[in-house]
């Protein structure tokens, strides 16, 4: 069995928990209804902070009522089982939800930030923020009013923890992407980096992603079914 498994998750892993995906082939994704340039860029936030904050408030409230699904629980189990055998799981998520943590995953790398945190653009302090965020809120650290934003990574901004991710990719012996469309970089490029290191790659998705041709192996179907079955199979070997 592989000892160091690198898993990259995307919105598809949380879809069955009731959190929307961004893009799907049925045209039902979040970005089919809302303009990402207005809601997920620093320029959009500067132009209309109230609209952007309301978008994230609605998604935060939805998250607080959501629960992890069997795919999240299976990945938490995989982390524990690999550790017990002297191996490790690197779980990198593009998701800003906390469903991996609530399912029991201990180490989760949130490369696109976290919805339940706010960052002050004045003092850069990051705070746990489980409630609505308004332009009238003051930063609890520096008292600046109107400088708080969701601690998420928008288009044109640098994703987080890229050095740690690069290190883990170089030391992995299996790369698995779960529920991600392969449309957003740099995450969409991780599979090519893994391949360049000679690491076997596997895609788990409802349907083939944009970069499906880069994977050695593929399992298609709902994450809540495919991920637990894949983890079981892996732990039996
Ligand atoms: C299921 C399922 C089920 C459904 N079971 N599966 C031109 C070319 C190349 C790059 C660029 C370009 N122009 C601009 C760029 C860069 C840009 C980019 O990639 N843009 C593309 C749109 C082209 N990237 C950036 O700006 C990033 N920063 C950056 O590049 O900095 C410079 C840099 C350069 C080099 C190295 C390092 C840095 C930042 C990207 C930030 C993305 N932010 C968002 C919003 C975060 C906050 C929020 O949530 O609101 O992140 S956008 C959105 O997309 C979100 C996601 O994390 C991200 C990825 O989406 P994901 O997770 O793949 O979801 P979907 O919806 O796309 O796919 C869901 C999948 O699930 C589908 O495949 C379904 O089939 C599947 N599925 N149900 C299993 N039940």
Describe the fold and architecture:
There is one protein chain. By secondary structure, this protein is of the alpha/beta class. It is built from nine helices and nine strands. The protein folds into two domains: 1-19 and 69-112 and 159-237, 3-Layer(aba) Sandwich (Rossmann fold); 28-65 and 113-152, 2-Layer Sandwich (SIR2/SIRT2 'Small Domain'). The chain has helices at residues 30-33, 36-39, 42-47, 49-64, 70-84, 99-103, 162-171, 190-196, 223-236; strands at residues 4-9, 88-93, 108-110, 113-120, 126-128, 148-152, 174-178, 201-205, 217-220. Strands 3-2-1-7-8-9 form a six-stranded parallel beta sheet, with helices on both faces. Strands 5-4-6 form a three-stranded antiparallel beta sheet, covered by helices on one side. Helix 5 runs parallel beside helix 9. The termini are close together. The structure holds ligand BJW.
